[in-house]
Each structure stands twice: as structure tokens, then as C-alpha cells.
Amino acid sequence: MARRHGVDWRRAQALAAEEQAQFVRNNPVSRALAGRAAGHMLFGVPMHWMRDWSTPFALTVREASGGRFSDADGHEYSDFCLGDSGAMFGHAPAPVARAIAHQAGRGYTAMLPSEDAVWVAAELARRFGLAYWQFALSASDANRFVLRWLRAATGRAAILVFNGCYHGTVDDAFVDLVDGAAVQRGSLLGQVHALTAHTRVVEFNDLAALEAALAGGDVACVLAEPVMTNIGMVLPQAGYWRAAQQIMRRHGTLLVIDETHTISSGPGGYARAHGIAPDALVLGKPLGGGLPCAAYGFTAQLARRVERAKAGAPPGHSGIGTTLTANMFTLAALRANLAEVMTDAAYATMSALAARLAEGLRALIARHRLPWCVTQVGARTEFQFAAAAPANGSAAAAMLDPQLGRVIHLYLLNRGILITPFHNMLLVCPDTGTAAVDKLLRVLDDCAAALVAA
Q1: Would you say residue 29 has pLDDT above 70?
Q2: Which of 281, 255, 268 is nearest to 126 (CA)?
Q3: Are residues 412 and 394 in the same domain?
Q4: Per residue in 389-425, pLDDT tens?
Q5: What span, in angstroms and rounded, lies between the C-alpha atoms of 137 and 151?
Q6: Of the candidates 378, 389, 383, the residue with the CA atom closest to the CA atom of residue 361
Q7: pTM across the whole model
Q8: Please, are residues 135 and 325 in contact by the beta-carbon 8 Å criterion?
């Protein structure tokens, strides 16, 4: 019998065919809409990532609220993807909806500061411990802007990332470690510049490699998530970040922490909760309750260096910022989300739900004797196809099995449960509830039983 990650692979292939046929039968309206979309949208969807699900055609969403959404065929779903973190605190949270409605009659953008921007910057400084803030429309842009500022402030061209990292669409981060050498990712379309000239890459949790990469004194900053997420969650080993920051300080290299995903950890993010003290911090899609927005902060010392770099540059466009950055509409949503949605009470609810989910996942994995593991970071939980949690990006990549993942994802979707594509990440929001968590565990238990059956 052919087995793969503890699964009867022949049964998995048969199950995949059954689930695809069921999806097609159940979703005639989504199928018709996908056919119409193919005539006017590239790849048949508004953004090509929307084809990267387990479904034979895109599922069309009709309405979303809290931890649920409905599709064009009238089916209801418990949503454990939540826009891949964009709706981390639930779809259409009421305080954000009220703020948007209020602002709708008061103007959207003026390329001037609003009162909300002043409040939000002060609140971000309080929560995250960095004194000075700027805004962007996505974490990708925020990361891109931070790299420009820090290269200008330090006079250094190189940056360092971790193998398997994810920082949105920042080209500089699309560099992997292959047989010990930095290699530009083949998936990066249309890039003609040699990214490896200015990007160093090492494995996460490898202090010796970090020391060697920074020893030349030419690296402006390390850009990192405090926990790797998109390749599959990779936790820092005990004492790693304390030692890593000592190495960075010794070589004059700054630390940029990207909390876009790990803001699931708590009101001040993973770094604040675990004593990491970055020079700069990036926050993205969850901040505005689902609206496009991001923010990045600097320590007071770094802010002074950045201001000197700008003052010393010739006049003209800096290449940093866009016309709609910090528009009034987005800042109103951001203020409401920070003040009334991203609260201590909300995080306590989310963490408890995620712990219930993680415990249930471990129990069903043990019950079916599957060689899988489970990792939880606040409201974010993931199961991976290996018995032990990975220590770095290479190990996490080796655990990925897109074909097996697609079978599981489609099985869940056909039973009213959505989880994140690309990997097996599960998010809970304050409105998810124990009933939805328990249903997910029951359905996944049934799926596991079908996959391991002889």
C-alpha cells in the first residue's frame, strides 16, 4: 500500500476526485460566474492568487460577517481563513462599519493629515513601543518603504532575510538558500535585476550563519517575522532572538520586525510579548478591519537618522509613499479597529479558541497515528505534515504537500468550512465560537479517517 505522510495515497486520490465532483454539483452559480469572468478578467479572477484554492473554479462570495460568509449558491461557511489575516478580527466588525459610514459623508482623501491619524500614531506608539510612525496601503509597501529609509539612513546597500521568508511582494525578499548559496526565486515574474547582489539569506534559528553574514559590516538591516509563517510556522528556538539581536548590534545592523501575521499574538504583537526590541516594525492587513492599510514605526534614535537622510538628500520624489497613503477613509477605519476591535478582551477570546483548536488537532492526529505536528501563535494555528515542528525554512518547506493539502481543504469546504490555501493555517476571530471550532475538528476527524483507511 502506498502511504504518504501517514495517508493511504490511493484513497487520497480517489477522495480528491469525489470531492471535486461534489463541489461542481453544489456550486452551479459560482461555476457560471467563473465562466463569465473568464471573458474579461485575466486568469478569470480579479487577482490571480484567487485561483490558488483547492477548487476547480473560484467560489464567489456573496456576504461576510464575523466568522462566517455565504457564497453565490447560498451555502454558509465557517471561515478559518479570514482573508489570510486581512479579516483577522472578523468580517465587517461593527465599530469599523460605523466609522466607515460616518466618514463616507466627510471625505475620503485629501493628501493632508486627519485627526484620526494623530490618534492612531499615538496609539501605535503606546502598543508597540516605537515612537514614530508612518503609513502605507499594504505591508508590502510598508516593508519596501522601510528598506529604502534604512538603506538611506545607514549608507548600507545589503539586507538580510531568512530562507523561506514572506514579506509580501517586496522583490528584495524573493531570495532562497539552495545548497548553501543565495538564489533568486524562479517564481518571481519579470524581475531583471540580480537580487542576490544586495540580499543575503540564511536559515532561521542559525546564529552562526547570521554572524557570518553580518561580519562584513555592509548589511543595513535584517527583515524578519518574529515567527516564520507563510512557509509553515517556524518558532524561534529558546534564546534565539536575544542572541540574534546581540549579533546585529555588534555589526551595526538594524532589525525590522514584520508583525503582519504575528499580530495574532496579542495587542502589542509577538515582539512586545516576547521581549524583542526592533529598530523598526511593520504592520499590515489586519489593522484596518479589512480595508487596505499598513503602518511602520521607528525608534526615536532611528527616526532622527531617517530625518537626517531626508534632509540631506536633493529635492524631489523620494520613492517612498503613494498619493492615497494615510487617506482619511482608511485612517477612520484603522482608529475604530484599534480602539474597539483589537482589544485585550478580543485577544483573550481568540487565544482561548485557538488553544481549544490546537488541543483538538493534536488529539485527532494522535488518534489516527498521523506523523503530523501542530503549532499555535496566539489566534493562529497550523498543522504540518511531519512529526516534529520545523526549525527553519528548509525543514518547513520539506513538510509541504500541496496535493494532500488540496484534498483536505476541499473536503472541509464541501462541508461548510474554509481554511487558508497554500498551507494548513487556521485563524479564529472573536466571533468564531466554540461550536465552529468543534465542527471543524469533527469534519477533519472524518477526513483523517477516510485518508488513513486501508
Answers
A1: yes
A2: 268
A3: yes
A4: 999 999 999 999 999 999 999 999 999 999 999 899 9
A5: 21
A6: 383
A7: 0.96
A8: yes
Task: Select from 341, 360, 381 the last residue of a domain.
Answer: 341
pLDDT value, residue 320? 95
CA distance 347 to 23: 35
Backbone angle region of 76, left / alpha / beta, with phi > 0 → left and psi within -120 to 50 → alpha: beta
Mean pLDDT of 6-25: 96
Q: How many CA atoms lie within 13 A of 436 on its CB side?
A: 25
Could you report the per-residue pLDDT of 265-297, keeping only the tens digit for each? 999 999 999 999 999 999 999 999 999 999 999
Q: Do both 273 and 183 map to the same domain?
A: yes
| Helices 433-452/402-413 angle, 10° precision | 130
Residue 32 belongs to domain with CATH number: 3.90.1150.10
For 318-338, write each residue's pLDDT tens digit: 999 999 999 999 999 999 999
Give domain status of residue 84, yes or no: no
pLDDT band at 454 (very low <50, low <70, confident <90, very high): low
CA–chain centroid gap for 354, Å, is 17
What confidence category does residue 69 fall into, taking pLDDT thresholds of 50, 70 and 90? very high
- Tell which of 285, 320, 341 closes a domain: 341
**Is 193 a residue whose pLDDT tops 60?**
yes
How many angstroms separate the CA atoms of 198 and 194, rounded? 8
Same domain membership, residue 50 and residue 30: yes
What span, in angstroms and rounded, lies between the C-alpha atoms of 346 and 340? Answer: 9
